[in-house]
Amino acid sequence: MNPFLKQPMMSFGEYFAKSWELFKKHVKYIIASVAIFVGIGVLIGLVFGLFGIVIAMTRNPLAILPMLLLYFIVILGLFALSTLFMSGLVMQVYYPELSFGQAIKAGSKRFWPALGGIVLVGLINFGVGIVGGLLVMLSVFTIILAPFAAIGLQFAILLLNAKLAFVLPAILIDGKGPGEAIGESWNTTKDYLWQYVGRFIVLELIIGAIAVGISFIGVFLILIPALISPVLGAIFGIIFGILISFGAAILVYYMLPINIYMYGYLKDLNNQNQANQANYYANNPQQPVPPQPQQPVAPQAAAPVVPPVTPEVTREEAVNMNTNDIPKTHEDMTISPEGEPMFENDFQTEEDDPEFDADTMHDEPVYDEEK
């Protein structure tokens, strides 16, 4: 890509303003989704609390097995529900006229590919985390490298998340499969990698700082009532714990609309860049055109070999033509005393055959009527 033909990306200020605009536009959807998740989380806490009481009363270690099974089922259900809500948010960003229910219904049509894409991205992050964690552990033996290794791991994970942030929009909007969506997301940021990653990381850091600040405020609000009364502290702890969880979840969702929007925005920029480059080289033929990837050419099938067709000669045509023009076949061929091929309808002379009698020759060939 010619750098002089590349469209500029939106500035930091425009990026942050757009993220706030999209958040306000879809805040009802985000609050409804977070409220459902927080409500489910509270119910799960109550259920597991009851299981804990039962285990303590029965003192039966096997009583924990149903709780573990329920925990596994709940985790799978929350994962599927999260995929459904995120798919609905993607549809609402690109189709703002859809309501909450309509957006979820539209996103559910590609539920399984979306779920596969999220699982695949999660596995990639897990693998990078494991490998990076091992490298950090090895670097502990070198005190100087340990902090840099930890910072490098965090940066690598942020960079990976920025490159894979468009998997879900690629699946839902462009109809890609999970594997194709990863490649599409990776290539979409190719020409604007550092511009996009820089804005992405800065906004992530801002949101993270706000979340940490809210957590500290929540801790102080819980500690003050606890100093007055343990019961009051427990009540306020539950209330503020729910509110903090609610606020943290909203902050997590804050990044989703802008990431979803940037997929279409960067694709439009890439298309404009390609059009600008094509127009530039069309209007400036003296400029060398950058090499384009060669498309594989399908091998051409060889033309079938058609044997020559001997034309059929009728009786009347044979009578009117010179006997040398009559087609000769191997059935008419004989071998001369000199070892050369001869045909029955070849004219002979005294030089060719000593027994040749010119008086016995007819002006026209004689045919056997029985043939």
UniProtKB/TrEMBL annotation:
<feature type="transmembrane region" description="Helical">
    <location>
        <begin position="234"/>
        <end position="256"/>
    </location>
</feature>
<protein>
    <recommendedName>
        <fullName>Glycerophosphoryl diester phosphodiesterase membrane domain-containing protein</fullName>
    </recommendedName>
</protein>
<feature type="transmembrane region" description="Helical">
    <location>
        <begin position="137"/>
        <end position="160"/>
    </location>
</feature>
<keyword id="KW-1133">Transmembrane helix</keyword>
<feature type="compositionally biased region" description="Pro residues">
    <location>
        <begin position="287"/>
        <end position="296"/>
    </location>
</feature>
<feature type="transmembrane region" description="Helical">
    <location>
        <begin position="68"/>
        <end position="90"/>
    </location>
</feature>
<keyword id="KW-0472">Membrane</keyword>
<feature type="transmembrane region" description="Helical">
    <location>
        <begin position="111"/>
        <end position="131"/>
    </location>
</feature>
<keyword id="KW-0812">Transmembrane</keyword>
<feature type="transmembrane region" description="Helical">
    <location>
        <begin position="29"/>
        <end position="56"/>
    </location>
</feature>
<dbReference type="Pfam" id="PF10110">
    <property type="entry name" value="GPDPase_memb"/>
</dbReference>
<feature type="compositionally biased region" description="Acidic residues">
    <location>
        <begin position="341"/>
        <end position="358"/>
    </location>
</feature>
<feature type="region of interest" description="Disordered">
    <location>
        <begin position="281"/>
        <end position="371"/>
    </location>
</feature>
<feature type="transmembrane region" description="Helical">
    <location>
        <begin position="200"/>
        <end position="228"/>
    </location>
</feature>
<feature type="domain" description="Glycerophosphoryl diester phosphodiesterase membrane">
    <location>
        <begin position="155"/>
        <end position="276"/>
    </location>
</feature>
<dbReference type="InterPro" id="IPR018476">
    <property type="entry name" value="GlyceroP-diester-Pdiesterase_M"/>
</dbReference>
